[in-house]
Amino acid sequence: MAEETTGLEQVGDRLRLAGTVHVDPRAAVFVRDTILRLRPEVVALELDRSRLLALEKPGSARATGSLGPSYLGLVLLERFAGQLTGSAPGTEMLRALEAARSVGARVELIDLPISATVEGLRSLPLKEKLRVAVDSVAGIAALPFGRQGLLGLTENIQEQVVAFRSRYPNLSRLLLDRREEHMVERLQDIMDASSGLVVGVVGFGHLASLKKGLAGYVSRQGFVTSYRWTQQVRPSQT
């Protein structure tokens, strides 16, 4: 396990956020070992139903057929990145799913539906679409190899997020803000509906925002109201 490219954040008493670099082959080992060690009540995955189906049944028409070429382009880019590092994006999610089932944990999906994300991509301004296309091609050519390249993905992560927001303001609202707001709400719902430990498996770049969004949140599960009735029995009169 490479602690430099993963992270486990504690949020309150019952929530742990396991952050991973999706294309790091060691991330799968990290999340599996974390879940097997902690044995949580719930494992929350940064997936929606369509993406989970696509991982479990690659090429499924139900998973990709209705989303069009924008989604397929993203899938091809991610798969290419995975080949370079020996681990396709989502491998750590599958290992997390398997580990959750082995310890009897309930599995919850917390990401915004991919259809909403793809629809948002279609509405990006043309200038930003062209910038994304050019940078994506350049990113494939310069994709990092080996351990040192992967470490660079997590170094100064907040500076990288700031730079990303500056270069792609509309895309960042779609890929970061909207999804993270949705994930925070889902995690709050999960905490309210459970009483044990919850482990969330999310991309490393989401850790800081999710931790901030959940800071100070008190689950409704922690509030228990009890009432006591005292019944007085009057002696019967004869």
Number of helices: 11
> What is the total domain count?
1
What is the gyration radius calculated from CA atoms? 22 Å
For the sheet with most strands, the description reads:
5 strands, mixed
Separation of the first and last Cα atoms: 82 Å
Secondary structure category: alpha/beta
Major beta sheet, strand line-up? 1-2-5-3-4
Q: Give the percentage of residues in beta strands.
A: 5-15%
The H/E string reads EEHEHHHHEHHHHHEH
Can you give the mean pLDDT? 76
**Anisotropy-based shape:** globular
Give helix % range: 55-70%
Number of strands: 5
> Which residue ranges are poorly predicted, with pLDDT under 50 across at least 5 consecutive positions?
80-85, 140-151, 222-233
In short:
By secondary structure, the chain is α/β, with parallel strands linked by helices. It has 11 helices and 5 strands, in the order ββαβααααβαααααβα. The chain has one domain.
Written overview of the protein:
With 238 residues, the protein is of the alpha/beta class. The chain has one domain. It has 11 helices and 5 strands, in the order E-E-H-E-H-H-H-H-E-H-H-H-H-H-E-H. Strands 1-2-5-3-4 form a 5-stranded mixed beta sheet, sandwiched between helices. A hairpin with a 3-residue loop joins strand 1 (6-11) and strand 2 (15-20). Helix 1 (27-38) runs parallel beside helix 5. It starts with 5 loop residues before the first strand and ends in a 24-residue tail after the last helix.
